Amino acid sequence: AVAFAEELLPAALENPQNVLVLVGCCAGLTVAVNALVGPQFGAVCIVKAEEHLKRDLHEALTQAASYERDNHKSKARNSVTYLSLLFAYEMLSGASVFSLIRSICSSVTHELHLELCLTVMRYIGGLFRSRNPEDFKDMIDLMIVKAQKFKESAVVESVSRLDFLIRELLEIKKSKGSFKAMDRLNPIRAWFTSSHLLKRLKFVDFQLEPPWDLLAGSPPDGWWKKPMGAARRTGTMAVGTGSAEQNELLVLAQAQRMTTDQRRGMFIAIMGAEDVRHAVARVSELIKKPKQVEEAVTVLLHCCITEKAYNPFYAALAVALTNVPGVLAKRFAHAVKAGVTNQLREVHTFSPTSLASFVMFFGKMMDKGLIVLAAIRFLAISEALDAGQASDIMSNVGLFLRGVLEHMLQKMDLVIVEGACTELRKYEDLREMVLLVARTQVAPRIHRLKGDVKPKLAAMLECLGRSDFDVSD
Question: I need a surface site. Which of 115, 301, 384, 401 has the fewest CB within 10 A?
Fold first, then answer.
């Protein structure tokens, strides 16, 4: 791992003439090898990139010759771009990017500090805004404040250049900035999704979170052995600092790839609860910002889907959270809808156990009116096609649809079944697929279902456009 990293990093970072695509290719290769070989390689690359950035930043600020200064400035931009792209490809956590920005902004003595921050924002500002909106706001505000204070100092060489940098940061904050530079790296993302070796991997499952502030600390020995090691920020519980039960849950959270402090806290709150009411109280106590509502639901769904068998506790908790007093109820309802939608896009990758659990959870959410049947339009059917599933109706997508339809027939009233199926007429391709599943997979198994389901199946088929099918057969 060390030898390969020592060959790869100089190619990516040490040539001041390197273009974005070359640095992006090296970052993409780093992420792929990290997922395939193990975290030691990714950890070595992060540490080496940090060392390069420290050295080049120092040289750019101290070299007397302008040519040497410019070379080291370009190399420092390469290192910042490389680390930013590791975040874009989900190998490096958002907290680590924020720590990098904080370290660069800790002592703004040159325009280069602001240029490096702007480089990060130009490449991953859009992604960071979508993945970590609260951190994004704090980060961009920090940059603007530091830039304005620097402008007021007496050491500014070019006011016009500094005005340009501040204007760029303000445009990004107001969502007017352009992030089209990342479009040049679309072929790399296409490689991730088309490679037989990589397309089934989720790089976020191999994400690394350095337990020190980049540029401001030193990596502890063997830190990569715990990729999701406890962070050093205030309020984060580390292994060994809480009760024995909390420590066990924290270790389990790390094993489950809980990538942020918030997710680890939510995991402990949910898994350490005695019952649904206790879990609601513990989760509600942790909610300080709207973003944390989404994190709570993300953790809840993860726990539900990764259990060895379906546990109704998670669906009951999801429903209970949407009934808490105040504005949180509406936020939780929206978060449940968004979380289920995200999981629908991953159904084609689920194991049989996870698929069965998600079918039951989805059904319970439909029973409570939190999700509608038409949400299945978010199923990643094209990805299933790429994976060779679509030709087989018994694929994950087909099994999921069969499970949902059977749940409807057994648990829902006739009028609700008719309304849900009628709504599918808006989506012709989806209607045809659901009709195919109902006719070829649900109807032959009707004798296994509980209750008087034949009238409901007949109504379902009629609403889907097949009134001539005799369910009595």
Answer: 115
**Angle, nearest 10°, between helix axes 261-271 and 290-306?**
60
Q: Which pLDDT score, from 0 to 100, does residue 250 have?
A: 63
One-letter-per-residue 3-state SS of 33-54: HHHHHCHHHHHHHHHHHHHHHH
Residue type, 275: D
Distance, CA of 381 to CA of 397 (rounded, Å): 7
How many helices (H) and strands (E) would you count in the chain?
21, 0
Alpha carbon distances (Å) from 239 to 228, 230, 248, 271, 375: 12, 7, 8, 16, 40
Q: 């898994």: which residue's tokens?
A: 271
DSSP 208: B
Residues 260-304 have pLDDT tens digits of: 677 788 888 888 888 898 899 889 888 888 888 998 999 999 889
Q: Which residue has the higher pLDDT, 340 or 225?
A: 340
Residues 297 and 139: their CA atoms lie apart, in Å, by 25
The sign of the CA dihedral 130, 131, 133, 136 is: negative
User: What span, in angstroms and rounded, lies between the C-alpha atoms of 435 and 440?
Assistant: 8
Supply the pTM of this predicted model.
0.51
Contact assessment for residue 93 and residue 207, using Cβ atoms and an 8 Å cutoff: yes
Closest Cα partner for 46 from 218, 241, 290?
Answer: 218
- Quote the distance between the C-alpha of residue 20 and its chain's center: 24
30 contacts: CB under 8 Å, gap ≥ 6 = 8, 41, 42, 45, 86, 91
Q: Which residue has the tokens 């273009």?
A: 19
Considering only CA atoms, which of 103, 140, 131 is closest in space to residue 259?
Answer: 131
pLDDT tens by residue, 143-164: 888 888 887 775 555 667 778 8
Q: What pLDDT is stored for residue 139 in this prediction?
A: 80
Return the structure tokens found at 22: 């070359």
d(CA 317, CA 311): 11
Rounded Cα gap, residues 265 and 299, in angstroms: 10
Separation in Å, CA 180 to CA 12, 121, 188, 347: 21, 12, 15, 30
Least confident interval from 81-85, 132-136, 312-316, 402-406: 132-136
Mean of pLDDT values over 450-470: 80
Tokens of 293: 């509502």
